[in-house]
Amino acid sequence: MFRKEPHIKALSNLKNSDRKKLAQTIHAQTGNDKYTCPSIVKQTNFQTPTTIGTIYTDEKNIPIWFKEKHDPRLYATVYTCWNCEDLLPICLSHDFVIQEKLFNGANLMISGTIPPFDEKLKVGTLCGVASCQDPGRVVYAIGIVMMDLPKFEKVVGESGVAVQIIHHFEDELFKSFKIDLKPPVVDVQKGSVNDEEEEEEEKEQEKANEEDETTKEMSTATNVEDLAEVLDHLSVQDVDYFITRALYYTITTDTKLSLPISASNFISQHINKNLPDVDHNEVNIKKSSWKKTAKFLKHFEKEGFLKLKGKGDDLTVVGMNKTKDELKNFVPYKLGSSNGENKGAKKEGDSQSGMMYSITFYKPINLAKDLIKESGMPMKNLYLPTEIRDGVNNYITLKNLVDNKNKKMVLLDDLLFGMVNKKRTDPTVSRSISRAQILEPTLKNNFTEHFQIYDSQGTPLFKSPMRGSPPRIKILTEMKIGRKVITKVSNFEQFGINPETLAADLRKMCSGSTTIGETMTSPKTAEVQVQGPHGQIIIDHLNKLGVPTKWIDYENKLKAKKKRK
Q1: CA 105 to each of CA 46, 171, 216, 250: distance values in angstroms, whole numbers, following the listed order
Q2: Which end of the chain has fewer surrounding CB within 10 Å, N or C?
Q3: Where are the alpha helices (DSSP H) in 222-356?
Q4: Is 460 helix (H, G, I), strand (E, B) or coil?
Q5: Could you tell me what percent of the chain has a pLDDT over 90?
Q6: CA distances (Å), 364 to each of 187, 377, 443, 528, in order?
Q7: How far apart are CA 370 and CA 267, in angstroms?
């Protein structure tokens, strides 16, 4: 419904009587009495290219419900579902399906769902869609059930729309209200564990419960002065999460890993060095639920990630499975500052400490998919340039394409020739080419570029990498009619900069009035205008916010004054 940004009118407070009627309607439609309306509810009318209706928000102007004009049904937003977990029945799907399909405007097909289904998921029911990989079952999309899902015990081979998506986390609803929301991090310790997991991991749960009880006793005895110190400690689940991420990083990205390798070296030289920027005294194998290296490695061998040899604690890692589903959508992160492996890695924008930086990824299309299969690379959505380079080199070695007369030259076979010379029609083009000249045209002709921007702490600004190259902030100083000098800055929102906050900062620093508007060019973005020639002041301020100068374009249209003779 909100595939394009809706046109909204000014908000107005809902009368108390109307707020009570709204609450009654919500309870009647959802059958859930646990939900309570905020004490202050605002409403506004909206219009999109396909429909018109009403949006209800809380006192912070965050949309909580919406409806179409001629339809009495109320639709909850994902934000409302985050605050009331049992509001709607949940339909589970894969993380890849949610991010790559639903967030791009598709409906949820039956083949993309995961049984068993909630008995409430009948035709016409409003439901939430969550990822099976998310233990907190955070809702990322809202839709209407189109099939009688409980009757399906398996979905392989089935076809049809299971859930018609009405609203999702990445659509234009929240953006139209200038709201920057982040999904909540649910504490899985509070959640329940299903019966199968209890049977398989009964001993593990008993130990975890004992640890939890000990922690509770300690926290009860702790006085107020020590409370902050207690809160700084990570939970066992947090430690497990960081170590698991380090394993994923090691399997997919660590080019210095060579097999076979002993268990101790695997942990000390790779897992520990590939941790995010966390305190290693808090995040290590001993603080995890596995406690011992052997137990950790055997767990992931059972999950299909590793192949081990040896008995007891004397283990050797002899193989890794890079084709696991969990690794296909894994996005590498910035390693901790204490990890020397990352110091030599050059990232765009990372020339100064405290600055944002970006990492470039490539998505294979057409012939690139054939190259990936032939070279033995793991199939996934996005690849680093170094991974593609290694894949090309492996392919050249496997196909024995190195020129025996000149080792620096490669004899292109049909696949590589088509990838390198995709846009050339001349059949007389030589098939002998320098190895150094292969990668650039291969990336340009057979992959689409994506990027992810990270803040100075290594936190990604986007949920998933975006197509294209990193955006550039535009600053323009010009003279308006009436010889009025102004400076405009635009295209800054993708860097997490709020227009209202930027306008307030510039108003103070430049001692001039500011206005917030939109650019005249397409696509339209927010634009802040300040009186006076303040280009350098704005650049310095953006640098303090973490935006490197190389991502800023400054144009001064003021004509230089002519000197009097």
Answers
A1: 20, 9, 45, 34
A2: C
A3: 227-231, 236-252, 263-266, 293-302, 325-328
A4: strand
A5: 30
A6: 36, 12, 9, 38
A7: 34
